[in-house]
Every structure is written in structure tokens, then in C-alpha cells.
Specification:
About 60% of the residues lie in helices and about 0% in strands. By secondary structure, it is mainly alpha-helical. The radius of gyration is 15 Å and the shape is flat. It is built from 3 helices and no strands. It has helices spanning about 20-25, 30-45, 55-65.
Length: about 70
């Protein structure tokens, strides 16, 4: 289940809040929801120190190379 904790991020304009999860689900297409999920998961994993952006890029490139063979 999604958390309701409020976080402050520098890319959110001052005095503005994020849209609700439910609103985001309504306004995004299926493809956009998938992209948002990948973005959110990667952001969390980098912030938590599970992997670095460089490690992500390496594995991304590795997968792309494998599927292009």
C-alpha cells in the first residue's frame, strides 16, 4: 500500500503540492504509469543507496546490448 507521508522536493514549486496518487492514476496513460513506476523505483533505490546511478546505467546498457543482438 502506498504511504501517505508528505515529502518536500526541490523540483516541486514553492507553495504547490503534488497531485494525489489517485489523480495521477487518472491522468496518466498505461504507458505513462509504467514509466512513472520505473522512475519512482529507480529514484528510491538510488536514494536508499541500493545502487548508484552509474550502476543503473551500466545494467541498462547491458540489457540494451543483449536485446539488440
Amino acid at each position: 500500500m502506498a504511504t501517505t507521508a508528505q515529502r518536500s522536493y526541490s523540483d516541486v514549486p514553492e507553495g504547490k503540492g503534488l497531485i494525489s496518487f489517485e489523480e495521477a492514476m487518472e491522468v496518466l496513460s498505461r504507458d505513462e504509469r509504467f514509466k512513472a513506476t520505473v522512475y519512482a523505483m529507480n529514484t528510491l533505490l538510488v536514494e536508499k543507496g541500493i545502487y548508484s546511478p552509474e550502476e543503473f546505467e551500466f545494467h541498462f546498457r547491458h540489457w540494451a546490448q543483449k536485446v539488440k543482438k
